């Protein structure tokens, strides 16, 4: 009985095999969508007052993020990477040179959203950092103004597109705050350090940048002590804040020479509450430790 | 002030050391190997490193100061994931298989779309059907029967109500799923509701010949808050084997013996009835596809959630001091026994001695006579 019923079904089997795969994309559901920011509609209409006009914001976020999200969908749909968030994809693809383009797309999506999530969108509100945060900045940079100048100088000095990050190194004692550059689509995430791209290789050589010469048992890299095995969930650095220095972000509103003006306008629009949330801060009056702060009066000369 | 003096004292030496170690670096781009270093920070670190040798300026460094403990790191990681883990894009809602076990749907979440996506409508080839199921069948497609999802939903909700009420009344519910892959679903349902599960073969006679098969299992007496009450060991020794008050079976076709035993002993049963199964084997059939693990996980999830709700109601009543069930028959409190014994002691030592002797003799006789099997037991607990 069963055998007969199976034989009677070849028509059905053929029907199941029929559907054409000529156009896969329109039939599939879009999995990644542009993330909404706080006050998203207001931002679309008015931009970010004091930083971006509405057209500038549209170019920098709405259109560009849409581009990245569409690329992500094209890349991941139907594969094992479907439905994974961009952060996991960045860490997955950082080690694989053949997935370089995919990494770039995922990393830019992550970094660009990170940049916009740390901007205060309310028009008349200037966010101020808490005293704990200011103390941590003073401890690591000398003063808040020094920190600002340092950060903006880093961003201005980078030639070409990239990001400048404020990170907290949780592996070191006192968990210091540091500034980190990533060129083009580099990522500060600890699992993606292969593609951190903290260096512009055009301005480095073997002597200045040790990591250019990693091969050989007698190389300088071999002299480095091996990093201790981290416990589960160990993080190298925690990104807190970033600025997107890609030209398309500021070109429309600030013009071709307007990088510095953009950076300064951006500084006033930072949402320090979100930045502090990610930082581990010791409250003022924690146990005293010897730390040397205020290096700015000393120049590194021989 | 201290810093400047120290630098003034040791500055030239420190600088000289730096120069010796890295002679050519300074001519090129700043030595920024990563976020940890910069020219100023290098210098700062060297100063600090030297400062560590001076005990008065530096407290003894803690072992954990330089690195976080595992718990701290994990907490930090979780915090970071919450803040930065979802950045980049918003992913539209999609099917995640593990959520059927980690967060099962409840009776209110049962929709025709959910049942369709779980392949609950797929019946067997038409020649294999049991005509008693005709009322549940929607139609035929490609030579197989399609189960009506409205019937499935209605019967599932009814079964959920039964399960919830039995659980609320303190009944013992046994979730049975003996096919490969059904174990996780039944265990999860039992865990949610603090009831019982079975995913290995049902041993025939566990109800009809329970004394023999389940005779060695431990039983316990619990109060209205599900806390164990000690002191009943002697009384439990003589009690009969416990039986389930409701059996939920995910694959009735392979469990005919279990369902028959339940019927012989007036134990209501709920079962997932496919188009080739016999709906008269169970008290409350749920017409659905028993060959699909996803469908079984949905059904077991819904019934597990219902039982969880019932258990919650029972325990809430217990917190208020109300009981939703009839207490066990013929159990006297250990205190009542003790007072009875104390009264006996008052009568006299001789009598007591005689009685004690009698008791001792009785116990010795008992030990000599019985073949090592106790009488009163309970069906095994789930974890």
CATH superfamily of the domain at 108-207 and 243-319 in chain B: Glucose-6-phosphate isomerase like protein, domain 1
Termini separation of chain A comes to 95 Å
The proportion of residues forming helix of chain B, as a percent range, comes to 40-55%
Determine the most extensive contact between two protein chains. A-B, 79 and 59 residues
Strand order of the largest sheet of chain B: 6-5-9-10-11
Ranges of chain B with pLDDT <50 over ≥5 residues? 1-8, 14-33, 51-65, 371-383
Order of helices and strands of chain A: HHEHHHHHHEEHEHHH
Give the spatial strand order of the biggest sheet of chain A.
3-2-4
> Count of helices of chain B?
13
Mean pLDDT of chain B: 82
Rg of chain B to the nearest angstrom? 35 Å
Rg of chain A to the nearest angstrom?
24 Å
**CATH uppermost class of the domain at 108-207 and 243-319 in chain B:** Alpha Beta
Q: Provide the residue-averaged pLDDT of chain A.
A: 81
The number of helical runs of chain A is 12
Number of strands of chain A: 4
Class per helix and strand makeup of chain A: mainly alpha
Please give a structural write-up:
The complex is a heterodimer of chains A (about 300) and B (about 375). With about 300 residues, chain A is mainly alpha-helical. Helices cover about 40% and strands about 10% of the residues of chain A. Chain A has one domain (about 30-195, about 210-225, about 235-285): minor pseudopilin epsh fold (3-Layer(bab) Sandwich), CATH 3.55.40.20. Chain A has helices at about 1-5, 10-15, 40-45, 55-75, 85-95, 100-115, 130-140, 145-155, 220-225, 245-255, 260-270, 270-280, and strands at about 30-35, 160-170, 175-185, 235-245. Chain B is of the alpha/beta class and about 375 residues long. Chain B has a domain at about 110-205 and about 245-320: 3-Layer(aba) Sandwich (Rossmann fold), CATH 3.40.50.10490. Chain B has helices at about 1-20, 40-50, 70-85, 100, 110-115, 150-170, 185-195, 210-215, 235, 255-265, 295-320, 335-345, 350-370; strands spanning about 90, 120-125, 135-140, 145, 175, 195-200, 220, 230, 245-250, 270-275, 285. Chain B has a 5-stranded parallel beta sheet with strand order 6-5-9-10-11, with helices on both faces. The radius of gyration of chain B is 35 Å and the shape is globular. Chain B starts with a helix and ends in a 14-residue tail after the last helix. The model of chain B is unreliable at about 1-10, about 15-35, about 50-65 and about 370-383 (pLDDT under 50). Strand 1 (about 30-35) of chain A pairs antiparallel with strand 1 (about 90) of chain B.
């Amino acid at each position: 009985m069963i055998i007969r019923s199976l034989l009677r079904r070849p028509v059905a089997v053929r029907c199941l095999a029929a559907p054409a795969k000529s156009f896969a994309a329109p039939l599939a559901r879009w999995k990644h969508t542009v993330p909404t920011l706080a006050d998203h509609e207001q931002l679309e209409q008015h931009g970010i007052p004091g930083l971006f006009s509405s057209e500038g914001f549209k170019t920098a976020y709405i259109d560009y993020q849409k581009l990245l999200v569409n690329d992500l969908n094209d890349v991941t749909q139907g594969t094992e990477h479907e439905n994974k968030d961009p952060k996991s994809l960045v860490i997955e693809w950082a080690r694989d040179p053949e997935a370089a383009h995919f990494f770039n797309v995922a990393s830019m999506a992550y970094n660009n959203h990170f940049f916009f999530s740390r901007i205060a969108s309310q028009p008349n509100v200037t966010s101020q950092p808490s005293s704990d945060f200011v103390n941590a900045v003073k401890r690591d940079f000398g003063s808040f103004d020094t920190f600002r100048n340092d950060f903006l100088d880093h961003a201005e000095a980078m030639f070409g597109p990239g990001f400048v990050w404020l990170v907290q190194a949780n592996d070191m004692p006192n968990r210091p705050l540091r500034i980190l550059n990533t060129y083009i689509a580099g990522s500060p995430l600890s699992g993606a350090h292969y593609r951190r791209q903290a260096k512009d290789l055009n301005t480095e050589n073997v002597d200045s940048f040790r990591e250019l010469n990693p091969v050989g048992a007698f190389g300088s890299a071999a002299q480095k002590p091996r990093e201790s095995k981290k416990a589960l969930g160990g993080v190298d650095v925690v990104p807190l804040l970033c600025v997107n220095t890609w030209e398309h972000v500021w070109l429309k509103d600030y013009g071709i020479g307007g990088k510095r003006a953009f950076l300064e306008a951006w500084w006033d629009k930072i949402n320090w509450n979100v930045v502090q949330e990610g930082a581990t801060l010791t409250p003022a009056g924690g146990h005293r430790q010897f730390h040397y702060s205020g290096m700015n009066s000393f120049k590194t000369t021989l | 002030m201290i810093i400047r003096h120290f630098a003034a004292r040791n500055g030239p030496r420190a600088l000289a050391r730096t120069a010796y170690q890295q002679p050519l670096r300074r001519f090129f781009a700043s030595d920024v190997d990563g976020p940890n270093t910069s020219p100023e920070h290098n210098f700062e670190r060297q100063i600090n490193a030297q400062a560590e040798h001076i005990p008065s300026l530096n407290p003894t460094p803690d072992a954990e100061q330089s690195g976080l403990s595992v718990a701290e790191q994990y907490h930090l990681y979780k915090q970071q994931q919450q803040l930065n883990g979802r950045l980049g894009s918003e992913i539209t809602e999609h099917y995640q298989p593990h959520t059927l076990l980690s967060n099962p749907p409840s009776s209110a979440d049962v929709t025709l779309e959910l049942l369709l996506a779980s392949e609950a409508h797929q019946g067997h080839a038409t020649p294999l059907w049991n005509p008693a199921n005709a009322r549940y069948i929607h139609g035929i497609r490609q030579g197989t029967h399609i189960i009506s999802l409205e019937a499935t939903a209605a019967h599932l909700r009814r079964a959920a109500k039964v399960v919830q009420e039995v659980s609320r009344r303190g009944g013992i519910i046994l979730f049975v799923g003996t096919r490969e892959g059904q174990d996780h679903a039944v265990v999860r349902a039992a865990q949610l509701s603090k009831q019982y599960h079975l995913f290995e073969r049902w041993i025939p006679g566990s109800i009809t010949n329970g004394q023999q098969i389940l005779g060695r299992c431990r039983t316990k007496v619990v109060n209205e808050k599900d806390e164990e009450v000690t002191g009943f060991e002697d009384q439990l020794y003589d009690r009969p084997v416990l039986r389930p008050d409701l059996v939920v079976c995910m694959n009735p076709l392979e469990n005919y013996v279990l369902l028959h035993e339940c019927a012989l002993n007036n134990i209501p049963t709920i079962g997932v009835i496919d188009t080739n199964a016999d709906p008269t084997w169970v008290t409350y059939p749920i017409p659905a596809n028993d060959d699909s693990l996803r469908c079984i996980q949905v059904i077991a999830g819904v019934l597990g959630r219902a039982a969880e709700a019932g258990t919650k109601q029972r325990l809430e009543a217990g917190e208020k001091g109300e009981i939703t069930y009839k207490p066990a028959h013929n159990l006297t409190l250990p205190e009542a026994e003790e007072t009875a014994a104390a009264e006996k002691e008052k009568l006299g030592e001789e009598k007591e001695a005689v009685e004690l002797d009698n008791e001792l003799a009785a116990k010795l006789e008992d030990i000599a006579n019985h073949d090592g099997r106790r009488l009163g037991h309970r069906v095994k607990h789930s974890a």
